[in-house]
Specification:
The complex is a heterodimer of chains A (250) and B (236).
Chain A lengths: L21 H11 L4 E5 L3 E9 L13 E3 L5 E6 L1 H22 L5 H14 L10 E9 L3 E7 L5 E3 L2 E4 L3 H10 L7 H15 L8 E9 L7 E2 L2 H21 L1
Antiparallel strand pairs in A: 1-2, 1-8, 2-9, 3-4, 4-5, 5-6, 6-7, 9-10
Chain B lengths: L14 E3 L2 E6 L2 E7 L1 E4 L2 E5 L4 E3 L4 E8 H19 L7 H17 L6 E9 L10 E7 L5 E3 L2 E3 L3 H4 L1 H11 L5 H18 L6 E8 L3 E3 L3 E3 L15
Antiparallel strand pairs in B: 1-4, 1-7, 2-3, 2-11, 3-12, 4-5, 6-7, 7-8, 8-9, 9-10, 12-13, 12-14
Helix pairs in contact in B: 4-5
Classes of the chains: A alpha+beta (250), B alpha+beta (236).
Amino acid sequence: MSSIGTGYDLAASTFSPDGRIFQVEYAQKAVDNAGTMIAIRGKNGIVMVADKVISSKLYTDNANPRMFNVNDNVGVGVSGNYPDGFSLKNYAYGEAMKWLKDYREPMPVQNIANAVAEYIHIHTLGISRPFGAGAYFISWNKQTGGRLFLVEPSGLNYEYKAWAVGKHRQAAKAEIEKLKIDELDVQQLVKEAARIIMAVRDENKDKNVQIEMGWVGEHTDGKYEEVPSEVVTAAEEWATAKLDEDDMED
Amino acid sequence: MNAHDELQRTLNPTCTGTSVIALQYKTGVVVLTDRVVSYGKMARYKNVSRQYKVNDNVLIAFGGDHADFHWLQNVIERQVLLWKRFDQDIGPKALHGYLTSLLYGRRCKMNPIWNTLVVAGVEEEEKNNKETSTPFIGVITQKGCAYQVKHIATGLGAFLLNQAVEDEWRKKGEDLSREDAEAVLRKSLELTIYHDCVADNEFEIGRVDATEGVVLGKEEKVIGDWSIAETNCQYE
């Protein structure tokens, strides 16, 4: 960022002369530097995986989860600044409640993503600081199949087949592109996703890391759930074996 | 209260349901409601359930205004979602307490919710141990008067049935089996259709069992014995 310190980066309320909003770009950095988090849409469901650093052994198992239910059908995964992400999840939750009150049916994933994107966008207008977090929203049902959205700190909200954010997003995206994800079922996705997360780790720097997973699909009857720890462990074991095997070939 | 506030209040219910009869048995609760919606004394809609499954542990049945109850279903649904956010399932005791406050609050605003509610369920005493779960029946009247019972009949049933249901209950007490409890309910419904002109002979029996959870009832029908009608001097 060449023009750092030229006076246009102290608040999101002013554009730089070349049309950039530095505060929003810095907020994006909070996501870019956080643990890798990927989401993949497969044949019959979606899997979301986060790589988290466990900074102390004194934390309870799965303290500070990054994935939550918004309602029974939609899952949210937040990356970046944890309290910011947590607050986004709470906002999404409130919106889903309002929807349920007004329409008496669960809020669809696209509407949730849009509502959150609009909320995030308001925070890029210079009133207060932007959110240093991004949020995946995933759901699956028989009519629409799987849907996956990512809302970024700028308020950008795109729908993806698969995506990666965080530290090793480039490597992770390259790995995802090698897969025929449309043909993979959820069980295979879980394994491949674990493999990708572990493959892109920097062995020297990424220590005390833990994988967290969430899924939704035909097998959960369209309900978003946290992936059971046995399944995650099995996927990790499969991935370790697979990665060792690949190393042997090289 | 302002001068014309009465114009904005429900002063009379419109589409209504009549009695609810519920009874505890050894490991759960059975609840009977008929399946008609009355508009005044006319049987306006048939095949409508008056029972709502809240989650695996709680079932709510109601008498009184259908529209108010539909609104309540939404309130309850949102409450369930709020509890899930903290990884908890709302139990019958907590829901009974919540609805008591809600109905009492509304009557204090002179704008009551026109329902008599029967909250039936099993209260989990220990996590992941269904054997220690205890049956629960809680009643809330339209004015927020709430109490817990082992057996209940509401609506016109309160005048007709409570003694009969209690007599049956006392014979076996806590050891009452589900089959016996359902037999009591069926007999009770038969008594209401003889005396309550808005009660219907099509009904359902839902139950909440400690091990099976909530099981919604299937539609059933009772004909009864109408030979007694001959002795009624107004009967044509």
